[in-house]
């Protein structure tokens, strides 16, 4: 067990090194001179030189990468070119709305999609199964921004049940916090819920045809016990895998969702940084999201041992 955990932790090191190389190379993938693009069309040569010195573009590449990676290891992601503020500080300021949105989306998606997938598998081939999977296909097909605008139009503009934009910190109370995040979480979770529901149904169908399920039925076990205790537990490895992989969808969708609902999160910070060509902020945000994604997948890998004891060996 301990050896497996150590191997999985060590396996993340080369992944993060590759991510760091890619993030550092973002500054050079854009066409043209980064200093000239950041400085603007009307910038003087002196201003361009100042920007180049600020970004360290007047130094050799290997030296810039060495300085940058040492600073990143110390938690220093540099400073914004336009505001002069610390990138780490900017990310921390926007961290609560993004983490709140992702956490609520994850809870809604898991609590909704898994029962739907189990119900569809238990009624495989019926009208209920076809209806639920049809809704799942629709949810997976509609873009996040379209779902966001549709939910905002119905529940905010027409019915006036929920606020259409803005964010209320959790310190202001659970209800204000939830009312501002419910629509963004539903919009962001539409694709995620559809993906989990379909994978749950597929995994459950494979398990429900196993011999031990027939034995449980022969022993007189109730349908609920068979589905949610025996079958779901053994189908959970595939479900847990897609939950971890789906975090990438959630991260990408958070950028769009936060822009639609004007949430002051990291996704909105990313959009603003791209529009302003603020490369230090872009690098810091991409590195942060990559670290979160790698960390979540590490947690998922370690959780396998709790679900399937065979993985320990």
- Sheet bearing the most strands, described? none
Average pLDDT:
80
Secondary-structure element order, as H and E? Answer: HHHHHHHHHHHHHH
Give the class from helix and strand content and strand pairing. Answer: mainly alpha
Helix content: over 70%
- Distance between the ends: 7 Å
- The total tally of domains equals 2
What's the layout of helices and strands?
Layout: H1 2-29, H2 34-39, H3 45-55, H4 61-73, H5 87-93, H6 95-122, H7 127-141, H8 144-158, H9 174-208, H10 211-218, H11 223-245, H12 247-260, H13 266-276, H14 279-307
Task: Walk me through this protein's architecture.
By secondary structure, the protein is an all-alpha fold. It has 2 domains: 23-92, no CATH class; 95-264, Orthogonal Bundle (MetI-like fold), CATH 1.10.3720.10. 78% of the residues lie in helices and 0% in strands. The chain contains 14 helices and no strands. It has helices at 2-29, 34-39, 45-55, 61-73, 87-93, 95-122, 127-141, 144-158, 174-208, 211-218, 223-245, 247-260, 266-276, 279-307. Helix 6 (95-122) packs across helix 11 (223-245) and helix 8 (144-158) crosses helix 9 (174-208). It is globular. It starts with a helix and ends in a 6-residue tail after the last helix.
Pick out its properties.
single chain, 313 residues, mainly alpha, MetI-like fold, globular
């Amino acid at each position: 067990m301990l050896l497996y955990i150590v191997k999985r932790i060590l396996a993340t090191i080369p992944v993060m090194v590759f991510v760091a190389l890619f993030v550092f190379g973002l500054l050079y993938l854009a066409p043209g001179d980064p200093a000239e693009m950041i400085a603007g069309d009307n910038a003087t040569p002196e201003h361009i030189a100042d920007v180049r010195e600020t970004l360290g573009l007047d130094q050799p590449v290997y030296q810039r990468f060495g300085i940058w990676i040492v600073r990143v290891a110390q938690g220093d992601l540099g400073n914004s070119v336009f505001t002069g503020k610390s990138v780490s500080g900017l990310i921390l300021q926007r961290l609560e709305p993004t983490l709140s949105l992702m956490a609520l989306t994850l809870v809604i998606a898991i609590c909704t999609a898994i029962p739907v997938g189990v119900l569809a598998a238990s009624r495989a081939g019926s009208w209920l199964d076809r209806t639920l999977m049809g809704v799942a296909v629709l949810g997976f097909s509609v873009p996040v921004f379209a779902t966001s605008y549709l939910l905002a139009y119905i529940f905010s503009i027409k019915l006036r049940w929920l606020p259409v934009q803005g964010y209320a910190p959790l310190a202001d109370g659970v209800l204000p916090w939830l009312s501002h995040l419910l629509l963004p979480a539903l919009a962001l979770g539409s694709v995620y819920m559809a993906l989990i529901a379909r994978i749950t149904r597929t995994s459950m169908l494979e398990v429900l045809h196993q011999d031990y399920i027939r034995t449980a039925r022969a022993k007189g076990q109730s349908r609920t016990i068979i589905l949610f205790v025996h079958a779901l537990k053994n189908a959970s490895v595939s479900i847990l895998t897609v939950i971890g992989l789906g975090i990438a969808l959630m991260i990408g969708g958070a950028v769009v969702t936060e822009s639609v609902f004007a949430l002051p999160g990291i996704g909105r910070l990313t959009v603003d940084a791209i529009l302003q060509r603020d490369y230090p902020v872009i690098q810091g945000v991409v590195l942060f999201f990559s670290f979160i994604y790698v960390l979540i997948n590490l947690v998922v890998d370690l959780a396998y041992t709790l679900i399937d004891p065979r993985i320990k060996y």
